[in-house]
Specification:
By secondary structure, the protein is α/β, with parallel strands linked by helices. Helix content is about 40%, strand content about 15%. Helix 3 packs parallel to helix 4. The radius of gyration is 18 Å and the shape is globular.
C-alpha cells in the first residue's frame, strides 16, 4: 500500500454527531469525500437531511439520523441502528456541542449541569458505546472536536473596538479543557484494543464578525487569519485514516498558530 492509499476511508463507516454547523459541515464533507459511509446525527434532523442530500448529489454516501444527546435512550438507539445497518463503526467524531448562553459565572448548579450533561456526560456515554464496539473489532478511531479555548484563557483584547465585549462564563473553557484529558484517558483505556482517540482543537472561524474583531483575532494568530470552511478537512481525514495509525492520545490545534504564540 502506498502512502497516499493510507489516507483513504473507502470501506469505512463513520459517525459525526452534529454535522450541519460551521465545522461540522466540512467534517462531514471530508469523511464522505475520502470514501467513508458517513452517518450524521443530531436533534435537527431537517438540517442534517439537507446536508445528506447535498452530499449524495455529489456521489457520496451520507445518512442522517436522529440523536438527542440529552437522552440515554436516544444515544443507545443510535448505536444500535448503526451497528444493525452497517455492522460496525470505524470512526466516531464527537462534534456536537451545546453552546451555553450563560454570561458571567454566578449561576446555580442546574444551569451548569445542563451544559455539562451534553458536553461531558453524553460525550462519555457515546464514546463508551462506540469505543467498545470498535474494541471488539480491534480497530477504530475516535476524534473529539475540542477548541483552542480548552488550552488558553480568554483574550479580552480580541474584542477591543467592537460592541462584542463579553461577560464570560467559564463553562466552555472548562468543558473543552476537560475534553483534552478525557481524550488521553480514553486513549489509555482503548489503546490495547487498537482503538485510537485524539482531539482536534480548532480556532476561531470567520463568520462575518466585525472587522475590528477579525483584525484583532487574526493578529493574534501566526498565519494572520481566521479559519475557513476547509481548514479542518485534512486533519479529520488524517486522524480518521490509517495514515495516523501510530497516533493516539494527542491534541492537534488547528488554529493558525493561535495557541503557539
Amino acid at each position: 500500500m502506498g502512502v497516499l492509499d493510507t489516507f483513504s476511508l473507502k470501506g469505512k463507516v463513520a459517525l459525526v454527531t452534529g454535522g450541519a454547523g460551521l465545522y461540522g459541515r466540512q467534517i462531514v464533507a471530508a469523511l464522505a469525500q475520502a470514501g467513508a459511509k458517513t452517518y450524521i446525527a443530531s436533534r435537527n434532523l431537517e438540517a442534517l437531511e439537507a446536508v445528506a442530500a447535498e452530499e449524495r448529489a455529489a456521489g457520496n454516501d451520507v445518512v442522517a439520523l436522529s440523536l438527542d444527546l440529552n437522552s440515554d435512550q436516544s444515544i443507545e438507539e443510535l448505536h444500535r441502528t448503526i451497528i444493525a445497518q452497517s455492522g460496525r463503526c470505524d470512526v466516531l467524531v464527537n462534534n456536537a456541542v451545546i453552546r451555553s448562553a450563560m454570561s458571567g459565572w454566578d449561576h446555580d448548579l442546574e444551569a451548569y449541569d445542563k451544559s455539562l450533561r451534553i458536553n461531558a456526560s453524553a460525550l462519555f456515554k457515546i464514546t463508551s458505546l462506540f469505543g467498545k464496539s470498535m474494541a471488539a473489532n480491534k480497530s477504530g478511531s475516535i476524534i473529539n472536536i475540542g477548541s483552542m479555548m480548552g488550552s488558553v484563557g480568554l483574550e479580552m483584547g480580541n474584542y477591543i473596538g467592537t460592541d462584542m465585549m463579553p461577560d464570560p462564563s467559564p463553562i466552555y473553557h472548562y468543558e473543552k479543557g476537560g475534553m483534552l484529558n478525557f481524550t488521553r484517558w480514553a486513549a489509555s483505556i482503548l489503546g490495547p484494543d487498537n482503538v485510537r482517540v485524539n482531539c482536534l482543537a480548532p480556532g476561531g472561524y470567520f463568520n462575518g464578525q466585525p472587522a475590528a474583531f477579525v483584525k484583532n483575532y487574526s493578529d493574534r494568530t501566526q498565519l494572520g487569519r481566521m479559519a475557513n470552511d476547509t481548514d479542518m478537512m485534512g486533519a479529520i481525514v488524517f486522524l480518521a485514516s490509517d495514515a495516523s495509525a501510530y497516533i493516539t492520545g494527542t491534541n492537534i490545534p488547528v488554529d493558525g498558530g493561535y495557541t503557539a504564540k
